[in-house]
Amino acid sequence: ETGVTQTPRHLVMGMTNKKSLKCEQHLGHNAMYWYKQSAKKPLELMFVYNFKEQTENNSVPSRFSPECPNSSHLFLHLHTLQPEDSALYLCASSQGGGAYEQYFGPGTRLTVT
Amino acid sequence: SQQGEEDPQALSIQEGENATMNCSYKTSINNLQWYRQNSGRGLVHLILIRSNEREKHSGRLRVTLDTSKKSSSLLITASRAADTASYFCAAGGGAAGNKLTFGGGTRVLVKP
């Protein structure tokens, strides 16, 4: 275990559904990240939070809405997704900035039907 | 364009053999990191080498960094079936900013 948990581990949703992914880190880190991993594509950074403040949004469509209520919790709210949004969504955390060692959760496998 | 690119994309070896994979990046960095990912799971940090270091060891792992060529290599010695995974390099800091930029990964299969 890396100290980063994600729920749910698997999610199937229709294009009109609204769902949320949850990430929690037990490491005392101050930075948290959402990544998207699609087949045959490099890991894509979506959002970065430092001390609960969003510091990066990599041109992510508004149907993905992040929320960081505190330094230990990170959510990704999903609504009206497209089939191409099907992917493994990974949460990570680090102490210090994003260029430091990152600890990843096991991911949520999302399928949009 | 992505910062880190691995070569080869896939590698198949026998247990006990060494596995070598390479990573190239495009801009200045503060560090270069290697991660492992078992199928459908999260990434696990393996090793970090700073831009002022040339070689680093951790157990059966050996990493080199050549900043003049903007390249790094990861060597896994005496491979085991449990080393079967995808390996990713990630360029940290420098011109890429305060984040990691990952390459596409090398899929390693170690046959028993």
What can you see in these coordinates?
The complex is a heterodimer of chains A (113) and B (112). The mean pLDDT of chain A is 93. Chain A contains no helices and 11 strands. Chain A has strands at 4-7, 10-13, 18-25, 31-37, 44-50, 53-57, 64-70, 73-79, 87-94, 103-104, 108-112. Chain A is mainly β and 113 residues long. Chain B has 112 residues and is mainly β. In chain B, strands 2, 4, 5, 9, 10 and 11 form a 6-stranded mixed sheet that branches. Chain B has a 5-stranded antiparallel sheet with strand order 1-3-8-7-6, with no helix packed on it. Chains A and B meet through strand 9 and strand 10 of A and strand 4, strand 5 and strand 10 of B.
Largest interface: A-B, 26 and 27 residues
**What gap, in angstroms, lies between the N and C termini of chain B?**
37 Å
Question: Would you identify the regions of chain A where 5 or more consecutive residues have pLDDT less than 50?
Answer: none
Structural class of chain B: mainly beta
What percentage of the residues of chain B does DSSP assign to strands (E)?
over 45%
In quaternary terms, these chains amount to heterodimer
Number of strands of chain A: 11
Estimate the helix proportion of chain B, in percent.
Answer: under 10%
What is the gyration radius of chain B calculated from CA atoms? 13 Å
Structural class of chain A: mainly beta
**Biggest beta sheet summary of chain A:** 7 strands, mixed
Major sheet size, sense and barrel closure of chain B: 6 strands, mixed
| Tertiary shape of chain B | globular
Fraction of residues in helix of chain A:
under 10%
Average predicted local confidence, pLDDT of chain A: 93
Strand content of chain A: over 45%
What's the total helix number of chain A?
0
**Mean pLDDT over all positions of chain B:** 92
